[in-house]
Amino acid sequence: MNRYPELLIPAGSLEVLKTAVVFGADAVYIGGEAFGLRAKARNFSMEEMAEGIRFAHGRQAKVYVTANILAHNRDLSDARAYFRELKEIGPDALIISDPGMFLIAREECPGIDIHISTQANNVNYLTFRFWHDQGASRVVTGRELSLAEIREIREQVPDTLEIETFVHGAMCISYSGRCLLSNYFTGRDANQGACTHPCRWKYAVVEETRPGEYMPVYENERGTYIFNSKDLCMIEHIPDLIAAGVDSLKVEGRMKTALYVATVARTYRKALDDYAEDPALYEKHMPWYLEQIAACTYRRFTTGFFYGKPDENAQVYDSNTYVKDYTYLGMIEETDGFCCRIEQRNKFSVGETIEIMKPDGRNIEAVVKGIRGEKQPKEKEGQAAQEPLWEPVESAPHSRQALWVTLDKTAEPMDILRRRES
């Protein structure tokens, strides 16, 4: 029996959570201010988590909270208090990798589902059965599994146990994320959420008896990036994922922008809905999916381990940089006819042609007719605070500046403004 999969999207902030839900996510996964594996992401306070959960639940979407560090003794008492707080705000599931953290979560949050993180290295059906017997409702596959192996796991585990699989985003060079390079080079532990991504750095070879003689393995004049994997993308293979029995299609990227999240969520949402309506429609719209997904920042694409062990073509040897076709300008917060309020994220100017990106799949070109920037009036002693003034400006160079932007096309709240780069 084919199982219609959930689309699970990452969110590193409240703004991105709302974007993911509006642009098509069935569920989002987020991290709190502790115990998740993305310490460099802004992450969520308890108040923001509660607001995000209310927002998602109001639109029939779910929220999962990561607590997937490999815990040390010093972490355990704080983890217990943290799970007690989470119980009060009611996420739909907790994502955990460490057995000790699992025990605490089960004790403190008995009514919340537990999902077993890919960090737990789940690569065989007995492991899946083990976690099911402990009370887990879902297990995330290790990224080293092929579709054939996932299909076998599906056949060997109870139907009530859900299988979640990464289908899009960055690939770790190490086995299911268990990398020691960051800790070794910088003292920042990847397994404690502080990875510095040294797999993206440039390396050379040093022969044992010739210390100080660095011999680059040239792919171009800048050296080689021997650990730098291409990004995973399975937009062309959704039928195979469904046939293998995957319950949740997971996108990587809790440190990504709202533009990235909107683009990936919208593209996979349409692909899933098209396939559910008619597989022929899915095939017909494939050029659109590929065009849209290429609008994200990415390091070229691979299908990872799904069709066998990756070869040298899964690596990017000549650069550690992303391909970037679009720049995120901001999200529409409110509108007044052709005038819309945004919190600006990158510079743009009056007269530029930009795009309004809509959740329904449309991308509408629009000309910036005017920009007004916020100017706080000077307060005099004894005078009550005044409303901010708005003055015309030619460009918006200051990040996170509040702006009113006049366009020649209409936009709605939660639409995204972006600029195509040449």
Description:
- By secondary structure, the chain is α/β, with parallel strands linked by helices.
- It has helices at residues 14-22, 46-57, 73-89, 99-108, 125-134, 147-156, 181-186, 238-243, 258-277, 279-284, 286-293, and strands at residues 6-10, 27-31, 62-66, 93-96, 113-116, 138-140, 162-169, 205-206, 214-215, 231-233, 248-251, 301-302, 326-336, 339-343, 353-357, 363-375, 389-393, 402-407, 416-420.
- Helix 1 runs parallel beside helix 2 (46-57), helix 1 runs parallel beside helix 9 and helix 5 (125-134) packs across helix 6 (147-156).
What's the tally of helices? 11
Order of strands, main sheet, comes to 1-2-3-4-5-6-7-11
Determine the N-to-C terminus distance: 46 Å
Low-pLDDT regions? 314-320
Q: Major β-sheet, in short?
A: 8 strands, parallel, barrel
Oligomeric state as shown: single chain
What is the beta-strand fraction? Answer: 15-25%
Query: Count of DSSP E strands?
Result: 19
Return the average pLDDT rounded to an integer: 86
Overall 3D geometry?
Answer: globular
Order of secondary-structure elements: EHEHEHEHEHEHEHEEEHEHHHEEEEEEEE
How does the helix and strand content classify structurally? alpha/beta
Give the % helix: 25-40%
- What's the Cα radius of gyration? 23 Å
